[in-house]
Amino acid sequence: MQIQTPAKPLKWQKVAVLMGGNSAEREVSLNSGNAVYEALKNQGIQCFKFDWQGDNLEQLWQQKFDKAFIVLHGRGGEDGYIQQQLENRQLAYTGSNASASEQCMNKATTKTIWAKHNLPLSPSILVKMGGDIPKIDFPLPWAVKPILEGSSIGISKVNHIDALEKALTLAFKYDNTALVEQWIEGNEYTVSILNGKALPVIQIKTERKFYDYESKYHANDTQYFHPCGLSNTDEQQLQAIAMQAFTVMNAKTWGRIDFIVDKNNSPYLLEINTVPGMTSHSLVPMAAKAIGLSFKQLVLKIIND
Q: Selecting from 3.40.630.10, 3.30.450.40, 3.40.190.10, 3.30.470.20, what CATH number does the domain 104-120+185-304 have?
């Protein structure tokens, strides 16, 4: 009788699963990290969880490991900081490098790079805390966002100019710069990227005003559709735009690109995520499942890239 050996990374003997962090997305990161840890452990891979709390990295360096699986969402984990710390110690890790992560985390920088490559974007302006508000020459409604937060944290929809100040005040709780962009009414879609390929498009529907933090992680009435309802041609167009958007940001291995498609069937890029969620509500595992990849297989593909 042939004895099956447990699945192991191709060359990684011990994996550190980095989770937690001190960003507004800490709760989600802990859930993601636990899921990734269990998937690795259940395949016979030597691994350990490390709850980074912002000031305890010395405890991580004291443990020997070959590669870090980064599941830190938001600041510190997605903005290049933890990547730079690992690079400084010549330690391997999953996902995009420090420079690309820093660019992708900044919504303003991302939009600037995408604009240079003529990718589809809604018009926008930047507002600095304490500074004058530039003239806004695109129509209401507007989306107001802190430029360095994920998971839709700090985002407001402004339907009347009188509500702009309140929306900026909320955004400035998270950052000293806010992005004000034209709100595009339409359907929301997301494209996951894995190892150089775009996975099937997922359409997201929520009963809330938009796909906010509550819709993403707590609501039970958020709906996900795959097949996404688009024609094959339109789905392939979104996938092609997503791949270009991912590539020009120098992102690597895995990530997610979010879109709005308006009533005229025109797509608009929203943002890029370089450390997407890996929870039961998360979209990358959902897209992977659509092509027959289990969660365990997905985790291996990310760690082995």
A: 3.30.470.20
Instruction: Confirm or deny that 79 is annotated as ligand binding.
Output: no
Residues 29-53 as b or e (16 or more Cβ within 10 Å = b): bbbbbbbbbbbbbebebebebbbbe
Task: Output the CATH code of domain 15-95.
Answer: 3.40.50.20
Each residue of 136-193: pLDDT tens digit? 999 999 999 998 865 567 899 999 999 999 999 999 998 899 999 999 999 999 999 9
The pTM score is: 0.90
- pLDDT tens-digit series, residues 271-293: 999 999 998 779 999 999 999 99
Annotated catalytic residues are 25, 151, 282
Can you name the residues that pair with 203 across neighbouring β-strands? 189, 225
